[in-house]
Amino acid sequence: MIPAGATVAELAFCLPDLPDVRDFAATQAVRSGMSQEGLADFLVALNEVATNAVTHGHTTAKAVLRMWTVGRTLVVEIHDEGRWDPGPAPGETPPGPHATSGMGLWVARMVSSDITFETGASGTFITMSFKV
Question: Which CDD domains is this protein grouped with (predicted)?
Answer without folding.
Answer: HATPase_RsbW-like (cd16936)
